[in-house]
């Protein structure tokens, strides 16, 4: 039985395990949190830091192939594993590039992918862009952390950053692409996400995106070109801005399954998780078409509350037609933490706004301080 190692034991790893079972893979997981979502369900769960080269190297010594569910891992560890002949996907150099928003943006612009005007900035340097602008810390940001809209120079964080001109965003779109180790490449149809206005975390999303057909094709083509250009093996989740005047800009991309791809589990002929394994194993990629339009509402930790979480309206949510719930196994909530999601399947995409609204109305997340 092939042993696959995953760096990171969060919900993405958990859903990768679900798909790995069908292919009879033995999944090993490395995460520093003993109560992470993969604990108790991985074939072997190793407690240790994905950011430590030695720990990653030791973990990799027990597996045949090594992948990840978050980018903030030790690239040195990945390199050592690769040097020992272990299949590492995504490739260490690609992970290094995508870990740094500045290098990522530079590479996209250099290769001619549509990018907003930008500047790699060190504190004290003159600003070449107009205000308001968007500031992004180069490393370690996620779910909106490390990103801010800056109205004037005095509001800049004094840290090395990627500064970008503000794009007039009409819709936030993502396209998940898979490229197999044999070079076969396929894109899922675009997903449209709506972000929490304060927290920048995705609140809900839908597949198919509500886009003109040509725009959907352009988005897919851009994402396919990017995945081919980066020679990714496995998934690449490509985030795009669709502007008020009908253009696309590349935002950032991630070499792993993505929150916006969870809809593929029930909406598409193949899920993003199955597709990732197919790509890594060099198997033919699956059909990515949507067979059932779907919406997804994230279960996010309520603002300002920490503690033990429960979902008292679960029965009401499940009583809605076409809904299913996926809980990530996190007992503790913190503000905007992704705790699970509700999927809603429909026959006609025109029903999606109402059906998503019905789910959102019934959501209730209770947090008990411990
Ligand atoms: P994260 O790592 O948190 O996903 P992103 O770089 O995707 O960070 O930025 C978070 C959000 O900030 C985006 O989803 C978008 O709403 C907004 N944003 C980012 N870059 C720009 C930009 N150049 N113009 C306008 N809004 C932006």
Alpha-carbon distance between the two ends = 42 Å
Q: If classified by CATH, what would the architecture of the largest domain be?
A: 2-Layer Sandwich
CATH topology category name of the largest domain: D-amino Acid Aminotransferase, Chain A, domain 1
Q: Estimate the helix proportion, in percent.
A: 25-40%
Small molecules bound in the structure, each named once = adenosine-5'-diphosphate
Shape: globular
**Mean of residue pLDDT values:** 96
Using only C-alpha atoms, the radius of gyration works out to 20 Å
CATH superfamily of the largest domain: ATP-grasp fold, B domain
What is the strand tally? Answer: 21
Largest sheet: 9 strands, antiparallel
Text of the CATH class of the largest domain: Alpha Beta
Query: How does the helix and strand content classify structurally?
Result: alpha+beta
- The share of residues in extended strands comes to 25-35%
Number of helices: 10
Descriptive overview:
The chain is α+β, with helices and mostly antiparallel strands. It has three domains: 86 residues, Rossmann fold; 49 residues, no CATH class; 200 residues, ATP-grasp fold, B domain (D-amino Acid Aminotransferase, Chain A, domain 1). The protein is built from ten helices and 21 strands. Strands 10, 11, 12, 13, 14, 15, 16, 18 and 20 form a nine-stranded antiparallel beta sheet that branches. A five-stranded parallel beta sheet has the order 3-2-1-4-5, with helices on both faces. A four-stranded antiparallel beta sheet has the order 6-9-7-8, with helices on one face. β4, α3 and β5 form a beta-alpha-beta unit. The longest helix is centred in the middle third of the chain and has 18 residues. The protein is globular and about 55 Å long. It starts with a strand and ends with a strand. The relative contact order is 0.12. The site of adenosine-5'-diphosphate has 18 residues, from β7, β10 and β15. Adenosine-5'-diphosphate binds next to β7, β10 and β15.
């Amino acid at each position: 039985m092939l042993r696959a190692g995953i760096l990171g034991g969060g919900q993405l790893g958990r859903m990768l395990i679900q798909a790995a079972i069908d292919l009879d893979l033995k999944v090993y997981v490395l995460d520093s949190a003993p109560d992470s979502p993969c604990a108790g369900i991985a074939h072997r769960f190793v407690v240790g830091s994905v950011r430590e080269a030695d720990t990653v190297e030791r973990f990799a010594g027990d597996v045949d192939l090594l992948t990840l569910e978050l980018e903030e891992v030790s690239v040195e560890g990945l390199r050592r594993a690769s040097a020992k002949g272990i299949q590492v996907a995504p490739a260490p150099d690609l992970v290094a590039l995508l870990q740094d928003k500045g290098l990522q943006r530079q590479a996209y612009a250099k290769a001619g992918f549509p990018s907003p005007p930008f500047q790699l900035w060190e504190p004290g340097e003159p600003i070449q862009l107009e205000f308001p602008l968007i500031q992004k810390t180069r490393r370690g940001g996620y779910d909106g952390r490390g990103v801010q809209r800056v109205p004037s120079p005095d509001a800049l964080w004094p840290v090395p950053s990627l500064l970008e001109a503000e794009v007039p965003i009409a819709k936030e779109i993502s396209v998940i692409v898979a490229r197999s180790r044999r070079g076969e490449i396929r894109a899922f149809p675009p997903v449209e996400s709506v972000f929490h206005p304060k927290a920048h975390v995705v609140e809900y999303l839908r597949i198919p995106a509500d886009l003109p057909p040509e725009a959907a094709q352009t988005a897919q083509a851009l994402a396919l070109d990017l995945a081919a250009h980066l020679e990714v093996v496995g998934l690449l989740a490509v985030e795009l801005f669709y502007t008020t005047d009908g253009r696309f800009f590349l935002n950032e991309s991630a070499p792993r399954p993505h929150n916006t791809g969870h809809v593929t589990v029930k909406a598409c002929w193949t899920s993003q998780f199955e597709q990732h394994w197919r790509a890594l194993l060099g198997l033919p990629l699956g059909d990515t078409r949507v067979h059932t339009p779907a919406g997804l509402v994230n279960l996010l930790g309520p603002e300002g509350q920490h503690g033990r979480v429960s979902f008292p309206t679960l029965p009401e949510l499940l009583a809605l037609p076409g809904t299913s719930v996926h809980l990530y196994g996190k007992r503790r909530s913190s503000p905007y933490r992704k705790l699970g999601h509700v999927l809603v399947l429909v026959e006609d995409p025109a029903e999606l706004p109402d059906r998503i609204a019905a789910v959102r109305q019934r959501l209730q997340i209770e947090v008990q301080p411990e």
